[in-house]
Amino acid sequence: MQSFQLQERATTVPIDPYNPQDWQKGYRSLPKEYDYRIDEVEGEIPPELQGTLFRNGPGLLDVNGQLLHHPFDGDGMICAIAFKDGQAHFRNRFVRTEGFQKEQKAGKILHRGVFGTQKPGGPLANAFDFNLKNIANTQVIYWGGKLLALWEAAEPHRLDPQTLETLGREYLDGVLSPGSAFAAHPWIDPGCAQDNGAPCLVNFAIKPGLSTNITVYELNPDGKVVRQSVHSVPGFAFIHDFAITPNYCVFFQNPVHFNPLPFALGLRGAAECITFQPEQPTRILVIPRRASESMQILETKSGFVFHHANAFEQDGSIYIDSVCYEAFPEVEPGSDFREVDFASLAPGHLWRFHLDLAGKQVERQLIESRCCEFPFVHPSKVGRPYRYAYLGAAHAATGNAPLQAILKVDLESSDRQLWSAAPQGYVGEPVFVPRSGYNEQGLPQAEMTGEEDDGWVLTLVYDSKRERSDVVILDARDLNQGPVARLHLKHHVPYGLHGSFTPAYFGRDR
């Protein structure tokens, strides 16, 4: 979320360890697709690191020179970094969605974007056009033998994990229909009680309106939907992520208002019609994963949450750790996402929310005051009590800034470790890869083997000096020692969104 910044004034303004012009250079399109072994390596790739890191994000920030209004409107580009025997292979390819192919053929923007990109021709050309392009640009996950590129407003696209070729839209054996939403933040329960301890993938879909329907899906390791439930929520809900525990799905219904009129009249994108309501509380929706139980709704102080680190149950309560902002970062018409005055804007912080279901009370506690985003935890600890969280973070301890560091938070001892790429490096989401912790099918194990931080943290880092990107491997036990290996790519990769790791190797055979 290099561009998730709030229109709220920060209380402290630290000295910037970065140059805004350097940061802006990471927002350039990468139209070329590559396929090569990574030969330029500083350090040594751990030979035990076996598998494939998949990353997704907007690869095109313009269409034939016509700039997009916001990077979140950019076409999805998948990167695959495959590790085997101390070597690595890189491949990237655009998701060949229907809209992508049409626009590339026409050489111009043909579709409106959710975050404000409009077709040429002004309001008359955009009015009452609700045909949004499925851009497949947010997450990519390998599950049930299928590689799926996800965008929360429509169905997934299935890709060949070896070549990244687009195979078509994925409807989960008919469970989804054309245009059905399937969110971009699935969680893998490493040991589902309803499936005799087998892993399952849990995801959701949102259908907003005057009231909002939330559909929860649970998929077994074969990729089949084994449970599905629909829940109606009063009011409009703009929800990007959620969290799971063994018994619950937890959603934060952020206090926002959506006025569809400017969107319908072609004056604004849909996200530009969302306004934050600070006088309203944030509502927390607790949905049982067993259909026989009822949803509960609790309220807490007004705020806005994009991403959750984890949730767990303990002593009859639910605890959920989330990156929370004071307000929704409203997208302004006519603004330039490359021109961000970070120092004057308030950051996101990591908070813990304690949900007392019996008393219908919510308490919250600040965990991390450094500007942070993109939390990640050990896959065997998803939905369980855990000790370590890894986040993208600002270099400075206070104020707002681009993400230039990887932060490790010890929730038991309150210790912190920080590796920073400042002043010329800008990091993406950290992905934790355990040294062990996968079963024979390559799925997370419910029973963790080894220490919780025994593994590696993988992240993409844009090097503004070289105008290229690196794949950085950190020892998750000790970030302070710096990279175990730094793999220099032959090009840059635009700032991305989310990714996942599978122990299956999908690189080129040597």
UniProtKB/TrEMBL annotation:
It holds the Pfam family RPE65. The keyword Iron applies. The keyword Iron applies. Keywords: Iron, Metal-binding, Oxidoreductase. Its cofactor is Fe(2+). InterPro entries: Carotenoid_Oase. Belongs to the carotenoid oxygenase family. PANTHER family: BETA-CAROTENE DIOXYGENASE, CAROTENOID 9,10(9',10')-CLEAVAGE DIOXYGENASE 1. This is Carotenoid oxygenase family protein. It comes from Trichocoleus desertorum GB2-A4.
